Amino acid sequence: MKKIHIPHNIKLFAYATMCSIALSAAPGAIPGSSSGEVFAANPVFAANPVFAANPVFAADPVFAPEPVFTPEPVFAADPEITIPLRFDRYYDYAQLVEAVHKLHEAYPGLSGIEVVGKSEEGREIWAITINNPETGDHSEKPGVYVDGNIHGNEIQAGEVCLYLANMLLTKYGENEKITALVDKNTFYIIPSVNVDGRYHFFEDPNTPSTNRGLRIPKDDDRDGLFDEDFPDDLDGDGNICRMRKKDPNGEYRLDPEDPRVMVRVAPGEKGEYTLLGQEGIDNDGDGQVNEDSEGYVDPNRNWGYNWAPDYVQSGSGNYPFSGSGIRAIGEFLLNRPNIIMVWAFHNSGGMILRGPGTKSLGEFNRGDLAVYDYLGQHSESIIPGYRYLVVWQDLYSTYGDFTSFTDNLLGSYSLVGEMFMRESQTYGPDGRDQGGEEGGFFRESTGQQKEMLQFNDHVAHGELYKEWEPYDHPVYGEIEIGGWVKLSSRLPHPFMLQDEVHRVASAVLFSAEQTPEVEMEVFEKEKISGNLYRIRIRLTNSRAMPSISYKTVKNGLYPKDILAVNGKDIKVVAGGEIRDRYRNQLSYKEHKPEVQFTQVPGFGHVEYEFLVSGKGKISIVYDSRKAGRKQLELDL
Ligand SMILES: [Ca+2]
Ligand SMILES: [Ca+2]
Ligand SMILES: [Ca+2]
Ligand SMILES: [Ca+2]
Ligand SMILES: [Zn+2]
Q: What pLDDT is recorded for position 443?
């Protein structure tokens, strides 16, 4: 149950809403099976906006809980989940969990599923591990970790994880490349990190950008009350849209071509409208509307590297790993040291982001940068329109973000995928009409807004935008409510979903292909005299990633790979790396020459020489935390 202070003057409407959140916290609760469905299906209740705002009704807890007025999400209406999974739809939390189970049930030999941990509200965070155990234990292969939806509203970040799992399993044995990847790698996939966020995004009225954080109450406006004034779905359509009011002194006028678009008036020009912000009322009666909604602790600001407190960065919790699910996933990762590649999916903007998260962390070294650039540039080609960028430099600084943690403390090459570009919602003769001036990453110009509205009208058939409609607001009087619905703006319409998740998952496959593939060979075995032999060994890596990252080596994060020569009746007299084979330059290791520490570079090789005295069998073992294990037997 949430710990929350309810003031005496707070409206019962707020209290009832909070109760409904607490009651819906039971894990495994199936969205849509609540009694709310009965009301939602009843057009009389759904269409009547009076109930939500009228204090008489609001005070009555029977009518007050929000699910009563929430219709089924339009894009997740299909209750049947079958394998292969469909990607012309979105999966709510319960359906996503069911999809993970169905994938495993269809391919029990290639997959395992487990609960990684639980959220603040007790929902289970599921992982699916994909690996062919006949080619080795999951822990002995280069691990590729993929997650999504750490921000609760970033829904398609879950679908891309499901798509990847679905592709790996359903194409195993049919597609040569995918078969090879499932044999070579282990894929650890957590489709929804912020399970409470996903649940509430579908269940509750939202904007496309709300419901991002963890369900940890936070007093945003520092009035001693927690989460007491949230956006309210006044018209009962399941969305939090915007409110506007006719106002001769307003700062906005309506665009003459499309009156749905609000244009800021020039200085001295007369306005027609005032924008009143997100749909809602003043729940706690403090004179501000919607000033303290659920949370906000940002799960992507609370990992255990380069963390900073709330006064440096909003969204921080009280300490690193604030959040039960975050902590559980952190342990899951640290228990899988074979993970060398990490992808974390978000929306939106069409970006492939690499660290560092802040300038103070310093630029990556050349060796690692070459790997990132190789992956980033290929990703740009695999997903047209996406840009490969640096977090702090091209966007903003992030402290304690997830990929800084995995990059620095797990030693994994780590990328963030910001899925979906609003520019893909084109409305022009050949898709090149981008509607005028650039509006920045997260803002649209008037021209872009108009184009998106045309796209809504003629391609998405009105499903992305709620037309402005009059509403009688208890404080503002006659207003209008309208704007983009929650399943818009940051999410592709389902008809575009499969194309995007396929391309993005293909960038993940490319990175999996580039995880180290180390072969070991004895390229020289020469008898020097009597029982003394010279043995030369080459480790060759045919892929872009080194066997361990350069940062790992530099920081001594964990021991380097081991190359060891053993035998019952032999002694390694000397051993070391061959710096230059042609000029015979070697660097011998002084102590314990039978054990060498190494790193095999990407698209490269290393060579070692051992002088061995004795007779009989020797065994040569290469053992890498991330690049697996190789063994050779040799007779002297
Ligand atoms: Ca507050
Ligand atoms: Ca609404
Ligand atoms: Ca208020
Ligand atoms: Ca409110
Ligand atoms: Zn995000």
A: 65
